[in-house]
Amino acid sequence: MARKSNAETAANPGRLKQIALTYKMTRKADPKVGLIVAGVGIVTFGVFLAIGFLIGHPVYLGILGFLVAFLAMAIVFGRRAERAAFGQMEGQPGAAAAVLDNVGRGWTTTPAVAMNRNQDIVHRAVGKAGVVLIAEGNPNRVKSLLAAEKKKLARIMPDVPVHDFIVGTGEGEVPLKKVRTTLLKLPRVLSGPQITQANDKLRAMGDLMSNMPIPKGPVPGRGMRGQRPR
Predict the structure, then answer these.
(1) Kind and range of the H or E element at 108?
(2) Where are the alpha helices (DSSP H) in the chain?
(3) Would the pTM count as exceeding 0.70?
(4) Where is region (Disordered) located (predicted)?
(5) Which of 27, 135, 171, 189 has its CA 20 to 30 A from that of 46?
(6) Contact 80, 33 (CB under 8 A)
């Protein structure tokens, strides 16, 4: 029990430090985040307390209001922190790879399977939706990289669906903050053994594993502690 208590004591400062670092990062891009989060908490608590006085149970509603206010503050802060983090990553080489690396369980991601001298990059993710190619860079230049990769995949695994999209803010492109949700919305057509077989073929084919720069820092979003299947 003593060891467990010591471990929990050591873990709490780590979590608090991480929250403090996230707040500092968010405040740089969103200076009003503290006022907004505090305002949400005060208003939520005030509404519940007022209802409590009206129905004659201020203590019970006050306690409930405190809990709900804390939850509302956490949700608002999380969303604004996510927006700030994606804003800082936007446009950086390898930003999509950082998001893919945390896409979630069931996906195997490989950064920089193709790259040209202009640092236009194609990443790859394999999951129940099939193979997904995610491109970063100039839309006109990166299309040739995508076409070459799709041709290669069609040759070694013609029965596996291949999806592709370009990360960006232009027409027909997928914003960085929507990369994860876009992957998760794709229809699931492959079974576990089929995914394993596809990954084996891709490993045998070999990839361009370049030492590309990936943005540092926490990647936001729910369930972003990704795990790659082995």
Answers:
(1) strand 108-115
(2) 2-29, 33-55, 58-89, 95-100, 139-156, 179-184, 192-205
(3) no
(4) 208-230
(5) 27
(6) yes
